[in-house]
Amino acid sequence: MNFKEPAQGRKSAYYLRNRLALISAAQQVLAEKGPDTNLEDVANAAGMAVSTIYKHFAGREEMVQVALLEAMHEWERDTFATFSESDEPLKQLVAPMKAFLQLKRTHPLIAQLVTKNREVAFRMAPITSANLLAHVKRLTKSGELKIDNPELRTRNVIACLSSALEDHLMNPKSSEKENLQALVIALGMLGIDAAKASELLLPGT
């Protein structure tokens, strides 16, 4: 027996589909045009009228904010999901750091968004810092990391990774090897020597 979806349910599903389509279209256009993106661009990309955008967002600013935040949350979910892929504490620390510097390969759309819209990077940084600092503090407390002043060291690590990410995104000649070298330096700031860092960064680890 086939049951018809209630009218209210159909309306809600239709609303949600349109909203998701607009967010996706906004991300695509922002990745191409950056700050020059306007409502007409997004409406055309989504195959909708500009008036439809106003049913979901107060205006361009809110639409852009939501599109960028959704992209950031996608990256955050995927990146920090790597914590659960290993039972070894130091590998759990390194995995999301590796993912951070593989953005262009793993999340090309988000990489373009970061390149064209620097505010994405600014919004990613506090989340990255908070998650990394919490992890570093746990490892310091458990004795896995033997360091002082984890807050300062974590800030230095983030600065190192952010610089490496910018080079990774902006420099066509940037290589995977250079990214790994940056990670070795960053891990050194957390008291992990180069030999151990290289071991942790081996493919498949």
From TrEMBL:
Any single GO molecular-function term of the entry would be: DNA binding
Matches recorded under SUPFAM superfamilies: Homeodomain-like (SSF46689)
A Pfam match is: TetR_N
Q: Does the keyword Ribosomal protein apply?
A: no
Q: Which keywords has UniProt assigned to this entry?
A: DNA-binding
Instruction: Answer whether the UniProt record assigns the keyword DNA-binding to this protein.
Output: yes
Q: Please report the stretch or stretches of sequence annotated as the HTH tetR-type domain.
A: 16-75
Give coiled-coil spans as residue ranges: none
> What name does the UniProt record give this protein?
Unannotated protein
Organism of origin is freshwater metagenome
Which lineage do the record's taxonomy fields give for this organism? Answer: unclassified sequences, metagenomes, ecological metagenomes
